[in-house]
Amino acid sequence: MEKWFVLVRDKLARWLEALIKMLPNLVLAILIFTVFFFLAKFLRKIIYNLLLRISHKPAISGLFSSIFFILILFVGLFISLQLLHLDKTISSLLAGAGIIGLALGFAFQDLTANFISGVFIIFKKPFDVGNIINTNGFTGIVEDIQLRSTTIRTFDGLHIMVPNKEIFQKPITNYSLSGKRRIDVALTLPAKSNIIDIEDRVRKALEPIPEVKDDKVQVLLTDYNGDTIKMEIHCYIDNSIDNGYNNTRDKIIRKVHEAIMPPPEPSH
Q1: 26/24 Cα distance (integer angstroms)
Q2: The CATH number of the domain where 154 resides is what?
Q3: Contact 222/213 with Cβ under 8 angstroms?
Q4: Same domain flag for 166 and 196
Q5: What values do phi and psi take at 74, rounded to 5?
C-alpha cells in the first residue's frame, strides 16, 4: 500500500507542477476565449442588422448571424487550445466536425438543397412577397418566402407550399416585374367581313374599360385562307392588383363579342 501511495503522490505532484507551469497559459487562454466570446456577440448583432436590411427576413438574418457567432467562437477556442499545447485535441475536433458535417449532408440532402435555394431566392430576389408568379404549374400571389419553401396563394384561394429547390431549378414567370401584362383575343371572321369597320367597333368597345387605354390596343390580321380571316387583339393592362388579369380579360372578351356581333334585326 505504501508503494501505491507513493506512486499516486508522485503522479499528483507532477500534475500540480505541470498545472503551475501552465497556469499563465491557462489564464491567457481563458482571457482570449472571453474576448472572442464578447467579440462574437458584438459582431453577431451588427451582421444581423446588416443582413436584415438586405434580405428583410429575420429568419435568415438570425441564422447567418448565429453561424458567424459560432465560427468566431471556434476560432477563439482553437487559439486557446493552441496556447495550452493541445494540438491533438484540435485535430480531433476538426476531424469530428468534418465527419458530422458529411453525415448530415448525406442525411438531409433535400433539406440542404431547399435551404441553399431559399438563400439564393431571398438574396437574388427573382420575385418578392406580393408578386404574381407562375412556377411548377401553379400561378398565384407570393404570400411568404421561407428558407425551406415558398407559399403561393392561387386565384382559387388555395395556399400552395412549393419547395425552394423546385422553384430554383425550374423556370419562373414573374408577371409583376413590369407592372403591365398583355391580353390576347383571337378571332376567326368570314373573309367578306368589313375589317376596318370591325376594328373601329372593337376599339370603341374597349374605350370604356378603365384598365385599357386606346393607344395600347393593337388589332392585327394574322392569317387568311380565302374563306376566313384571323384577327388578334392585343391589350396591355395594369397587372399590379390581385386577380386583375382575369377580371379585365373577362371584360375585354365580353366587349369584343358585343362589338363583332351583327346588330339585331328590327322587329316587324
Answers
A1: 5
A2: 2.30.30.60
A3: no
A4: no
A5: -65, -40
Q: Which domain holds residue 252?
A: 180-260
**Is the pLDDT confidence value at 2 over 70?**
no
Same domain, 43 and 137: no
pLDDT, tens digit, 9 for 90 and up, residues 111-144 = 778 778 887 887 788 888 888 889 998 988 898 8
Query: How many Å from the N-terminal Cα to the C-terminal Cα in the chain?
Result: 134
- Signed CA dihedral, 14, 18, 19, 20: sign only: positive
Residue 184 grid cell: 390576347
What percent of the chain stands above pLDDT 70?
74
Kindly tell me if the per-residue pLDDT of 107 is higher than 70. Answer: no
Assigned C-alpha cell, 145: 418566402
| Alpha carbon distances (Å) from 229 to 185, 222, 263 | 14, 8, 21
pTM recorded for the entire structure: 0.57
Neighbours of 10 (CB within 10 A): 10
Residues near 20 by Cβ (< 8 Å), separated by ≥ 6?
none
Alpha-carbon span 205 to 261, nearest angstrom: 12
What is the spatial distance between Cα 47 and Cα 40, in angstroms, rounded to a whole number?
A: 10
CA dist., res. 4 & res. 6, Å (int): 5
How far is it, in rounded angstroms, from Cα 135 to Cα 149?
Answer: 13
Q: Are 212 and 171 in contact (CB under 8 A)?
A: no
Distance between CA atoms of residues 140 and 220, nearest Å: 30
d(CA 174, CA 126): 8
Residue the block writes with cell 448583432: 45
Describe the strand order of the beta sheet including 228-238 as a list of residue ranges: 180-190, 228-238, 218-224
Q: Is 235 helix (H, G, I), strand (E, B) or coil?
A: strand
